[in-house]
Amino acid sequence: MSEDLLTLEVVTPEKMVFSGKVEEVTIPGTEGEFGVLRGHEPFLTSVDIGELYFIADGKKYFYAVNTGYAEVTASKVTVLIETAERADAIDKDRAERAKVKAESALAGLSKESSEYEKMRLALVRAINRIGVAEKSTLH
User: Quick one: which of 124, 132, 3, 6 has its CA closest to 67?
Assistant: First the structure.
């Protein structure tokens, strides 16, 4: 079985978030979500705000991730991202407050405002964190 496993490393500027053997990993790429199994063709791609999940020992683990890059080889995936939070570690109430704050700020901004894109991304991150946090109760 171990020859079928893939090494996964999820790294932020602050720490190694995860390092271990997984059966498969699914990553939110900027060109769309993609899955990787051992033996995949090598490539380098950008990662978008979204849900990263992997299967290890038959169990799914979910993370809310921010932007970055992923390097895939036949036996290893390295994900270098701004932030990553495991589903069961996300403060859902805080994410809900961030969502409300971003929605409120966006309502008062024109699309031409220099703050508009910053608030739009804050809203996307908050919605993603809420969605991933809800997955922690499923498994």
Answer: 124
pLDDT of residue 92: 94
> Is CATH 2.40.128 what the domain over 90-135 is classified as, yes or no?
no
pLDDT at 3: 75
pLDDT in tens, 5-20: 999 999 999 999 999 9
**Exposed/middle/buried for 111, CB within 10 Å: 0-12, 13-18, 19+?**
exposed
Measured distance CA(45)–CA(29) in Å, rounded: 7
Answer whether residue 36 shows pLDDT above 60. yes
Half-sphere exposure of 138 (CA within 13 A, CB side): 10
Give the residue from 39, 32, 46 showing the smallest Cα distance to 4: 39
Q: Enumerate the domain spans of the chain.
A: 2-87, 90-135
